[in-house]
Amino acid sequence: MLYKTRGVVLNFIRYGDSSIIVRIYTAQLGLQTYLVNGVRSPKSRSSKIAIYQPLTLLDLVVYYQADKQKLFRISEARCAAAYQSIPFDIHKTTIALFLAEVLGKTLKEESTNEALYTFIEESLLYFDQAQTDFDDFHFLFLLRLAVYLGFAPSNAEDVVGQLKEANNFRVSQKHELAIANWLEITLQDQIHATIAPAWRGELLDMLIDFYSLHIEGMQHLKSLEVLREIAR
Q1: 47 CB-near residues (< 8 Å, 6+ apart)
Q2: pLDDT (0 to 100) of residue 227
Q3: This prediction's pTM
Q4: Looking at 38-47, 137-146, 157-166, 205-214, which range is the least confident one?
Q5: Which residues contact 167 (CB under 8 A, 6 or more apart)?
Q6: What is the set of domains in the chain, with CATH numbers?
Q7: What angle, 0 to 180 degrees and rounded to 10, lies between the N-to-C axes of helices 173-183 and 197-212?
Q8: 42: helix, strand or coil
Q9: Which of 55, 124, 173, 209 has its CA 20 to 30 A from that of 98?
């Protein structure tokens, strides 16, 4: 059966000589995995693989049948909204790759959650359009994403309390204050750089550790070190 849906690409792996297996989080079908043939063929005149780069927003027509195979195919795919700045700004590109890896580890449900999909799409479009004050975007995104994943902190003390209970994580007042400030604003508010660059690595460790309490594998993010270097 064919379904029309929006989707955001999480990642892909090479398959055979010219194909890929791509993981896409869709608005209508949740997380799905698709086999896409011929996109890596050297004889192809168009760079079809470009639309399957991480975090690309797609309009899709896909095959799906409940309780059948887990690897489906895509009938039609086109870019739903081309990013204007993320691919061309090294800082934004690095943050985007980090978010793609986080989403790849946290989005696991093969069921419809349109609210979660809408949050992801609207957040990425906002991030792409932001011209200034986006240095802390990924921190705010992680805190908001936790709401949809079911372990949102009610306040900064909640984050601190869970970390201290789990691994005796030492948290300073400046870190707790930064988290409290982020919890009070939305992605639609203007994001001002409220923390010094030197603190970002420590705060990032805090949030990754907080996620690790709820999501397995969060301590092994390949993009993390690159993000640390850019944030300095």
Answers
A1: none
A2: 85
A3: 0.88
A4: 38-47
A5: 209
A6: 1-82 (2.40.50.140), 84-232 (no CATH)
A7: 70
A8: coil
A9: 173
